[in-house]
Amino acid sequence: MSRSRLDPIRVMLGAEPSKTLPVSEAAQGIHVLKRQSTKQLSAQREALHSGFRNSHKWRNRRWAVLLAVNLLFVLSFRLDIQILEGSLTASRFLGFHLADLNSALQVMLAHKHIIVNLVIGTVTVFMLWLVLGGRTFCSWVCPYHLLSELAEIVHLALASRKLVSDQTFHRGLRTVCWVVFAVLAIVTGYTVFESISPTGILSRALIYGPGLALLWVLGLLLFEVVVSRRAWCRYVCPIGVTYGVAGILSPVSVVYRLENCFHEGDCKKVCLVPHALAMVVKGRATEATMAVGPDCTRCGMCVDVCPSGALSFGVKGLHRLL
Ligand code: SF4
Ligand code: SF4
Known about the structure:
By secondary structure, the protein is mainly alpha-helical. The chain folds into 2 domains: 3-52 and 251-315, no CATH class; 58-245, no CATH class. The chain contains 16 helices and 6 strands. A 3-stranded antiparallel sheet has the order 1-2-3. The longest helix is centred in the first third of the chain and has 22 residues, at 57-78. The mean pLDDT is 89.
C-alpha cells in the first residue's frame, strides 16, 4: 500500500499526519494558484461565502436518526412488537441477528471460540457499516455521542468564560485501550469493556430501565465538561477504532475539494477527530479532491459549518452525493 493511503490509517491509530507525502500535479497547480492570485481568490471566496447559511442541517438529521433508532429498541421491548429486539450490544432486527462489532469481538475473545450466531450478526453488521461509512455508528446511533455533544456545548460555554480549559492527551491512548481491553477479555474470559462502556450502559438503561451504572456515565460526562472535551470518544473508546477499520474500506465519506477551501479552519473547530481533516491546512492537501480520514464519524458538522462548500458527503472516486 502507498504511503498516501497508509497515512490516514496511521493517523487514526494515533500518529501525527505526515508532512512529506507526494502531491499530485492537480493539487500542486491549485496550491501554486492560491499563492499567486490573491485578488481573484478574495472575489471567489466572497462569492462562495455570500450564499452560506449555517443551518445545522446534518446535525438535525443525525439527531433524528439517533433518537429514532434508540426509540425503536425501547418500543420493541416495551410494546413487545419484536422489530428491533435486544440492545445496541446484540440485537435482532426483524429476526436477523445483529451485533455491535466491538462487543462481538470481545465476546469471542473472552469465550475463545467462534459463536455461530455472533459471527452471523458480526458479518451482517460489518457489511452494513462498511456500506454506511464505518464510524457512522458513533454519530448516528450511539446514545453516548449525543450526550457528549451536549456536554461539549456546556464545556465550550464555560471555556469561553475561562472557567474551564481543555486538557488533551495523546490520541494513541485509544489504540492502547483497544489492545488492553482485548487482552483483558482473553485473560479474564469476561467482557470487561462491556461493563464500563457508556454505549451499552445507556442503551440497556433506555430499554430495561435505569441502574447504578448510570452514575459512571454521569461521571464521564462531568469529566468531559470540566477537564477534557469529548475525552471518552477521543482517548478511550475502542468501539471507535473497530468501526474506524470498517471506515477505511467504506465508499461513503466526507469529500474535500481543495479548490473551494480557503483554510479558515472552522471545520476543525467543530470536529470530534480534527486529525481526520489534516488536509485542510494550507499546503497540505495531496489531491485536488480527497476523502476525509477513516476516523471520521460522518457526523456532517464540518459540512454544516464550511462557508465555502469545500466539504460534502460523497462516494470515494465519484461525484458529490448529497
Ligand atoms: S467512540 Fe464510543 S462512545 Fe464515542 S460515539 Fe463512538 S461508540 Fe459511542
Ligand atoms: S470530519 Fe466532518 S464529518 Fe467527519 S467527524 Fe469531523 S466534523 Fe464530523
